[in-house]
Amino acid sequence: MKIALIYGGRSGEHEISLVSAAAIARGLAKNNDVVLIGITPKGKWFLQDEAELNRITSDTKASFKITEDQAKAVYVVPGAGKNCFRTPSEQLEIDVVFPALHGTYGEDGTIQGLLDMADIPYVGCTTMASSLTMDKEKTKQVLEAAGIPVVPYICMKRCDLNDSHRYDEIFQRCIDDLGFPLFIKPCCAGSSNGANKAKTPKELSFYLMEAFSWDDKVLIEKAINAREVECSVTGNSTTANPNNADEVVKAYIPGEIVPTHTFYDFDAKYNDPNGAALRIPADLSTDLIETIRSTAVKTFKTLDCSGLSRVDFFIDKDTNAIFLNEVNTLPGFTPISMFPKMCEKAGLEFEKLTELLVNEALLRFESKSQLITAR
User: Fold this and answer.
1) Using CA atoms in the order 236, 238, 240, 241, what is the torsion angle rounded to 10 degrees?
2) Are 99 and 45 in contact (CB under 8 A)?
3) Could you tell me the end-to-end alpha-carbon distance of the chain, in angstroms, rounded to an integer?
4) Do residues 53 and 23 touch, judged by C-beta distance below 8 A?
5) Cα separation of 86 and 89, whole Å?
6) Residue-wise DSSP of 132-166
7) How far is CA 39 from CA 44, 75, 269, in A?
8) Is the dihedral of CA 313, 318, 319, 320 positive or negative?
9) Are 156 and 208 within 8 A, CB to CB?
10) Per residue, what are the HEC states of 263-299?
11) Would you write out the chain's pLDDT as a tens digit for each of its 375 residues?
């Protein structure tokens, strides 16, 4: 099978994508023909040489580099299906796309919409589910409506920031209704980019400005004295055939993150090898593990997710109350990433995981292709 692996991209997680994509390439290359498409931080697409794939597969510690060659610039033709990816000199004839992109322009529905227009199968959530889960406020609203508990929050928009009276009103409400400490984070950014913990009004004001440099909406959350537990989920929530095990929605063994930093920030996730301890399975009772797994499945289905997601929870250390934190539809695949580690602990090894995700993509595309779109 010919698989286009797309990585890099215009996001604060560009470098992480290069590492994730390298691991995915190693998982796919043994049984597939892998074509590499790198996206620069400025958003330009380039076909990469086969030598780059050989370099990655022969060195398990290597990450991708993107070579910019205008003779190999890639463009996408809407409706062209397998022939949608082209360079100035060739058609690439791709069977399925594996987007190894994180954050903005990667898991926010933008590339998913482009691939839908191109009419080609792709790994991961649909355009709608991707864009919904990228927006932390909208995700919370949908989950609240489904009866899934979320951390108490207030959302501030740039129009509020631009209105001093409105800003002061929301600022005070955050203090009065939620209380310190508070977490401040951009609504639509990943990997804790722009996220901070405020303990005073002065810090709250400063961190709000930082968060607004990342997004036009900012989420202010009550800081829970919590354990951080995550759960990997795979399957096709809206198109699954119950007779096909690859499509059935499944939650794997939950894991726990024990950060050594103030919280599980970008440095702890990616830069500091001692930034957190990873415990798989999480040190929880059997009943609590099953509650986490069932809630992860309910969340996945509520949001119409497909392919894969990592569902993140907080467990209050004082009350054992469970809160849904967020959903990552294209979680990390780096050597220390939780998503593949939790799957592996449940018996789904990395190579089999990538195979499963590709199969899910093809099955979902096949189901969608049966729909009537015009008369």
Assistant:
1) -170
2) no
3) 33
4) no
5) 8
6) HHHSHHHHHHHHHHTT--B--EEEEEHHHHT-HHH
7) 5, 11, 23
8) positive
9) yes
10) CCCHHHHHHCCCCEEEECCCCCCHHHHHHHHHHHHHH
11) 999 999 999 998 999 999 999 999 999 999 999 999 999 999 999 999 999 999 999 999 999 999 999 999 999 999 999 999 999 999 999 999 999 999 999 999 999 999 999 999 999 999 999 999 999 999 999 999 999 999 999 999 999 999 999 999 999 999 999 999 999 999 997 657 889 999 999 999 999 999 999 999 999 999 999 999 999 999 999 999 999 999 999 999 999 999 876 655 555 555 555 667 899 999 999 999 999 999 999 999 999 999 999 999 999 999 999 999 999 999 999 888 999 999 999 999 999 999 999 999 999 999 999 999 887
User: With a threshold of 0.85, does the pTM exceed it?
Assistant: yes
Length reported for the chain: 375
